[in-house]
Design a protein that fits this description.
Length: 344
């Protein structure tokens, strides 16, 4: 397959692995790169020295291009972005923040930048800031998808910007890839599908559960980590949705955030307090969400923990290797296109 995305990044197939904390590790990213796609290393939970180690490990496992992401809203993201830039990672993906300085620095060494967006306003801002491509994430997605579904969001942004877009949220097979290309995207990015793969480090029990769920098994709420997010509908998710938080909890949790990102506690605490009470509460939720996501992802605990998962889990019924997933999607997309053209 040849699209603007395969040309831009020098990859074989227009298929990306989304940046997923604890999951998009060097091993999974390299598996996707070696199968001809583009894997995005997740650095949200990493300290700068761990980010450097992840990049080194990925380079040992693949000679193909790969990407690394930063969620600019999170404490510690700027430090990680600086490591990614210093290491000249071929593709940098940023979300939830202004990335003009990232675009400038990455372009200086010949790299490419993808901005992840969920609204038209942010898509246009990212284009102005110099992004080379966009990941457009619809409502179906695991984690922080937008308010609008991919079926509507993808064409609306595709016709409003000049840079190529990659559709995310609700894609797992060749029908989805063919549909995304028809809607005006140049490729797809998948989280839930790759989470349920042989190479994925998510807890084995979550892969088994993901293969059994239907499309109604998720919940979309801003009560888990403070931002609207889609997670598996479990006891753990319902518990977090009901809980009450106050600014004192936020101050206490800032200590745990500081530990995770390797920044001085005082710096994080002052930063959070300066955000004002509303944002401070959001940060408190984010810190709690962090521990819940870790328990859900790594321990398979759906009572203490919570697992981000997309609606597409309802049409995923197996746990293949990354190579099998990518090859199957490409084959199915070609078949889907032929089948559709005989009907259109
Ligand atoms: C288990 C899991 C963990 C995720 N963690 C993150 C994360 O840390 N940061 C992020 O921006 N998105 C995260 N996501 C969302 C993905 O990056 C992506 O936007 C989403 O999975 C795409 O939709 P899909 O699941 O329908 O493929 C996660 C998704 C899953 C399934």
């Amino acid at each position: 397959m040849k699209t603007k995305i395969t040309e831009l990044f020098g990859i074989k197939h227009p298929i990306l692995l989304s940046g997923m904390s604890w999951i998009s590790t060097p091993e999974l990213v390299a598996a996707v790169a070696n199968a001809g796609g583009l894997g995005i290393l997740a650095t949200g939970i990493l300290k700068p020295e761990e980010t450097k180690d992840y990049i080194d490990r990925t380079r040992k496992l693949t000679k193909n291009p790969f990407a690394a992401n930063v969620t600019l809203y999170f404490p510690g993201a700027e430090q990680n972005a600086k490591v990614i830039i210093a290491e000249k990672v071929p593709v940098v993906n940023y979300a939830l923040g202004k990335g003009d300085w990232i675009c400038k620095a990455v372009h200086e060494y010949g790299g490419k930048v993808i901005a992840t967006v969920t609204t038209l306003k942010h898509a246009q801002a990212a284009q102005r800031d110099g992004a080379d491509a966009l990941i457009v994430t619809g409502h179906e997605a695991a984690g922080h998808g937008g308010a609008v579904t991919s079926l509507v969001l993808v064409p609306s942004i595709a016709e409003a910007v000049k840079i190529p877009i990659i559709a995310a949220g609700g894609f797992a097979d060749g029908r989805g890839l063919a549909a995304a290309l028809i809607l005006g995207a140049e490729g797809i990015s998948m989280g839930t599908r790759f989470m349920n793969s042989v190479e994925s480090p998510v807890h084995a029990s979550q892969k088994a559960i993901s293969s059994q769920l239907d499309v109604f098994s998720t919940v979309y709420t801003n009560k888990v980590d403070g931002l609207p997010a889609r997670v598996m509908d479990t006891k753990g998710a319902r518990r977090l949705i009901k809980r009450k938080l106050n600014p004192i909890t936020a101050a206490f949790l800032s200590r745990r955030i500081a530990k995770i990102v390797g920044l001085p506690w005082l710096k994080v605490a002052i930063g959070i307090m300066l955000m004002g009470p509303k944002k401070a509460m959001q940060m408190a939720r984010m810190a709690e969400g962090f521990f819940a996501f870790r328990a859900g992802t790594m321990e398979g605990d759906n009572v203490k923990g919570v697992l981000p998962i997309g609606q597409i889990t309802g049409i995923i019924h197996d746990t293949p290797t990354v190579k099998q997933i990518i090859e199957r999607i490409v084959k199915e997309a070609i078949e889907a296109q032929k089948a559709a053209s005989s009907r259109i």
